[in-house]
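Chain A, query sequence.
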Amino acid sequence: MIRSFYTAASGMQAQQLNIDTVANNLANVNTTGFKRVRTEFQDLMYQTMRAPGTASSLSSEYPVGLQLGLGSKAVANDRLFLQGDFKQTGNPLDFVIEGSGFFSVLQPNGDEVYTRSGAFHLDRDGNLVTADGLALDPQITIPSDATSISVAPDGTVTVTQPGQTEAQQVGNLELAQFSNPAGLEALGRNLFSPSASSGDAIRGTPGEEGLGSLNQGFLEQSNVSVVEEMVNLILAQRAYEANSQVIKTADSMLNEANQLARS
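Chain A, predicted structure.
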């Protein structure tokens, strides 16, 4: 009976982490380029009281065993890199990746990090940067007198300047992809860092070698479905309540046993 307390408690702890994950998904429902996360569970070890196939007599054996599970645990938060919906903004510095791939940006210490958010801005030198001021890699510089900016699906960036009849190319946007995107380490601020599980970044031209193409004037919205997350929240809540009820039932049974001992 004491065993059931700890078994149910492990289930409550697992569901608490599940609810925390759902809460983070819902909190980021309007975060550009956010990818929803789901919690994966495993059962814990088993206490074997009789192994399957144990001899029941000289000529027969038990067809099934007797094992008692000791609960569950959360083992992974799997990030699902499914395509989110596109939102038209009309901003020439907003880019969406139609397909797989990440934009590469540089942290102040020079480390490369990656993002699905294509909401870029210009710094005082005309460089394309994120909202936090991280520079796009490779660096793209827009002339201060540019009257229009155009980005082709293959990442070619051209601008039109006063007195010119033809657009001038000022750079090329590149994308990066990973053999296992789910293995990327989330850093917050829409940024991901490579890990031993994700593998190294493979850089390339948009639209080639499995990379997605670019569309200007659009942003990728979060792929979180509010309805699905609310269903997951209800299921996690009911599982949490069921485990707490097991503790109450085990406590009641233990109390009854104590009352028998006193009578």
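The chain has two domains: 2-80+224-262, 86-220. The longest strand covers residues 72-79.
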